[in-house]
């Protein structure tokens, strides 16, 4: 068999320049030992880290109403990856200290820099909830990134999710939301940033947006409250919240907070850690 393979490869090489190799690990280049991160085009981006159903579309609409802040719909960076599909491409990239992870980082950076350039503004704000699971990677790609931790009563998150998906098994809902909330809490402990509470945002939108502007180093603008007078793209499924509340163009009052007994097991410890419940949690 080796002689046959050699004969085939000689013939293929003469006629096509190609050769047969065994599929699998042998076709991949060795790991890049000395990674060399590319120079980033995007400067000091802002990432809103939150659970789902926490008001991130509202917050991005208010921030995006500022003349300097561009807050597009959810970008879902985690679903975008660059790949070198051959050993030759992997080897070529490795000579420059680039692997597929860095290649993907370069693509994300170029994408966000481009959408910011098209907006004509100077600061990008991104709010995809799933990015909470990429927070460490985002911080590594953009060491100058700023983080905003958007918190909401976990019991209210649960109520909002159940209202939108009443047929989902209750246990699956709690496990899903707990995963988000737990990661938000971890990020709060490991990354620098600013806490913003949904309940305060809708109760005092002017005060909370002033505080956010101070954190971001921009002057507050009153038009941030009446965000409906600015263009924010489509409010539709897959790009964030598309409810009547968000389409109203201004913050709507929060629903009453759930009673402690209404907070499901699995979310009580987070609710306590975030200051929404007192006493020991019985998760």
TrEMBL record:
Molecular-function annotations in GO: protein-tyrosine sulfotransferase activity
A Pfam family annotated for this UniProt entry: Sulfotransfer_3
Keywords attached to this entry: Transferase
Key word Iron present: no
Record carries keyword Transferase: yes
Signal sequence, start to end: none
Segments for region (Disordered): 243-263
PANTHER family: PROTEIN-TYROSINE SULFOTRANSFERASE, PROTEIN-TYROSINE SULFOTRANSFERASE 2
Name assigned to this protein: Sulfotransferase family protein
Upper lineage: Bacteria, Bacillati, Actinomycetota, Actinomycetes, Micromonosporales
């Amino acid at each position: 068999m080796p002689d046959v393979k050699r004969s085939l490869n000689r013939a293929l090489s003469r006629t096509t320049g190609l050769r047969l190799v065994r599929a699998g690990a042998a076709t991949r280049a060795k790991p890049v030992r000395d990674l060399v991160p590319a120079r980033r085009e995007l400067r000091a981006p802002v990432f809103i880290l939150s659970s789902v159903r926490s008001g991130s579309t509202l917050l991005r609409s208010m921030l995006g109403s500022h003349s300097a802040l561009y807050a597009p719909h959810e970008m879902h960076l985690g679903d975008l990856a660059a790949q070198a599909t051959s050993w030759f491409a992997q080897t070529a990239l490795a000579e420059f200290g680039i692997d597929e992870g860095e290649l993907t980082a370069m693509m994300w950076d170029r994408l966000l820099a481009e959408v910011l350039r098209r907006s004509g503004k100077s600061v990008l704000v991104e709010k995809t909830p799933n990015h909470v699971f990429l927070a460490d990677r985002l911080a590594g790609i953009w060491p100058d990134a700023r983080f905003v931790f958007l918190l909401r009563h976990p019991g209210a998150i649960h109520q909002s999710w159940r209202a939108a998906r009443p047929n989902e098994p209750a246990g699956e809902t709690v496990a899903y939301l707990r995963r988000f909330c737990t990661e938000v809490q971890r990020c709060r402990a490991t990354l620098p940033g600013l806490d913003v509470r949904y309940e305060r945002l809708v109760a005092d939108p002017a005060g909370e947006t002033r505080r956010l502007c101070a954190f971001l180093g921009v002057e507050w603008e009153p038009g941030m409250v009446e965000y409906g007078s600015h263009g924010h793209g489509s409010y539709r499924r897959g790009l964030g919240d598309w409810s009547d509340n968000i389409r109203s163009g201004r913050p709507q009052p929060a629903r009453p907070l759930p009673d402690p007994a209404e907070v499901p097991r699995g979310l009580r410890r987070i609710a306590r850690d975030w200051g929404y419940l007192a006493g020991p949690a019985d998760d």
